[in-house]
Amino acid sequence: MANVLTLTSPLMRQTVGFDRFNDLFESLIQGTEERFDTYPPYNIEKAGEDEYRIVMAVAGFTLNDLNITAEGESLLVRGQIDEKPQEGVIYLHRGIAARSFQRSFRLADHIKVVGAEMRDGLLRISLIREIPEEKKPRTIQIMGPNGLKAIEGNKKN
Asked: What residue spans define the domains of the chain?
């Protein structure tokens, strides 16, 4: 795979579902002069309380050129395009990048990839946070000496 880029991004850009941590790390690294590769450009969107979306600009790629792999806490998006010179085409300016890439995202616990679609040069990857029932908060009943809830049993007349 020629010209493959393994991208190293700030923590806030390569994680999905760590909203509170992202804000903390973003404030820590603001003002740094480090350069990070931004190809292909992408957005991470929060679409609802437990819904997220990664939108990548993949102009020039076809469905056959792209591969998405979700394994454990990692989401890997690869684009492999064969740069074949087109006969009779002479570029005076070539601003549409068509190079291969590899971008990985670290997913928070219970974040699942639920689908992907490509339309109008944008690859949209949909994610959802599915917290198992045993991990969700639950209300604990408080019993008083007479078997009543303590908050109900302590009424003063």
From this structure: 11-83+95-131
- Phi, psi of 25, deg, nearest 5: -70, -35
Model-level pTM? 0.63
Q: Which amino acid is at 104?
A: S
Q: What is the pLDDT of residues 110-120, one digit of tens each?
A: 889 999 999 99
pLDDT digits (tens, 9 = 90+) for 3-42: 333 333 444 445 565 554 455 444 444 444 444 567 899 9
Q: What is the assigned CATH class of domain 11-83+95-131?
A: mainly beta
Beta bridge partner(s), residue 113: 127
Element (DSSP H or E) covering residue 19: helix 19-29
Nearest partner of 62 among 75, 39, 79, judged by Cα: 79
Distances (CA, A) of 10 to 18, 50, 52, 154: 13, 23, 19, 54
* Residue entry with tokens 């074949």: 84
